[in-house]
Amino acid sequence: MSVMFSAHNSASAAVAPTPELLKVVAVLCQASQGKVPLLNALRETALAIGADVISISRVDLSCEKGSAKVLSADVRHQRPSSSGSFDFCVAPAVCGVNMKRAKSGSAWFGSMNDFADHARLSELYKNRRLSESVSILLERQNGVSDFLELHFCRPISSALANALTLMGPVLSDCWKKRSLGRFSETQLVNARRKSVRTDVKEILSMENPCRLSRAEYRVCLLLARGLNNNALLSELSISISTLRTHLRNIYIKTGTSSQTELIHDLLTPIVNPKPASAGGAYVA
Question: For residue 224, which of 68, 75, 91, 169 sits 20 to 30 Å off, Cα-Cα?
Fold first, then answer.
C-alpha cells in the first residue's frame, strides 16, 4: 500500500508551478464552469504536463473495493488499441486504507509495486508500459470521491511532483465550485459519441453517413481543406451566427463536441472503410 508522496520522499522543497502548469489550472477551472469542454481540458492538461493518460474518476466508497466511473483522455492511443479503452481508477489501490480519510486536494503517488494485489491494474500497467500515477482528491461528498488521475510512462520528476502537490488544493477548490452535472453530462456525451463511432464512418464519404445538409457538408469540406472560420465566412458568404448554427448541427450529427474534435475526425484516416452503397450519396 502506498503512502502519500511515498514515491518522492527524497524530493526537494516545493517550488512554484511553472507558467505551463498555471495555465493547466486555468483551463481546468474553466472546464469546471462549462466554458471549455471537459475532455478538451483534460487532453490539454495531459499534453502540458507530459502525462500519457489523464482521467477524472468518481469512486463510490460504499462499495468494498470502490467501484468507479471514469472519464479519460488517452493521449497515446487516439483510437481503441489492443489494450482496450482506459476505464480504470487507481485511487483505491494507491490510497489503500487512507481512501476514506484522504483530504481534498491531497496528491497520492503510486507505481507498479502498489498494484501487486490488483491483477487487472497490474496487467493494464504492463500493457500500457506505465511507470507511475498520481491521484489528486478533488472532492468527497455523500460517499462519493472524485479524483483527477494522471498516468505516466516515465517516472515523475521531483519538480513535477512538488508542483502537482501545490496545485492539488487549487484544483480541488475549482472542482467544488463546478457547474452542476459537468462530470455526468460529459460522460454521457462521450458514451454517446463512442456508440456513434462503433461503425467507423468517414464523415465526407460519398455515402454521407452523418446525413449532413448540403451547407453542413460544405462547411466540413472546407474545414478539412484547412480554412479557418474567417475564410469560411468569406467563402460561403454567410454570417457568423449562421456558421455557428451549422457547426452546432454538425457536432450533433457527427458525435463531436468541438471544432477541434470535428477537424481531428475529418482528417483522421479511416481503416477499412465500408464500400459505398449502390444508392449513391445523400446530401439534403
Answer: 75
| DSSP element (H, E) containing 143 | none
**For the segment 209-262, what is each residue's pLDDT rounded down to a tens digit?**
888 999 999 999 999 888 999 999 999 999 999 999 999 889 888 877 788 888
- DSSP state string for 89-110: --HHHHHGGGTTTPPTT-EEEE
Q: Report how far Cα 244 is from the mean position of its chain's Cα atoms.
A: 24
Q: What is the mean pLDDT of residues 111-129?
A: 85
Q: How far is it, in rounded angstroms, from Cα 253 to Cα 20? A: 35
Please indicate, yes or no, if residue 148 is contained in any of the structural domains: yes
Residue that terminates a domain, selected from 136, 164, 187:
187
Q: What is the largest CA-CA distance in the chain?
A: 68
- Highest mean pLDDT out of 5-19, 53-67, 73-87, 110-124: 110-124
183: closest CA among 48, 64, 72? 72
Could you tell me how many residues make up the chain?
Answer: 284
Prediction pTM value: 0.64
**Can you spell out the DSSP letters for 23-77?**
HHHHHHHHHHTTSS-HHHHHHHHHHHHT-SEEEEEEEETTSSS-EEEEEEEESS-
Provide the domain limits for residue 243: 199-267
Kindly compute the dihedral angle of the four CA atoms of residues 45, 6, 176, 182, in this order, to the nearest 10 degrees. Answer: 40
For residues 260 and 41, give the distance between their C-alpha atoms in angstroms, rounded to a whole number: 12
b/e for 261-282, b at 16 or more Cβ within 10 A? bbeebbeeeeeeeeeeeeeeee
Residues whose CB is less than 8 angstroms from the CB of residue 2 and which lie 6 or more positions away in sequence, other chains included: 93, 94, 95, 96, 108, 109, 110, 114
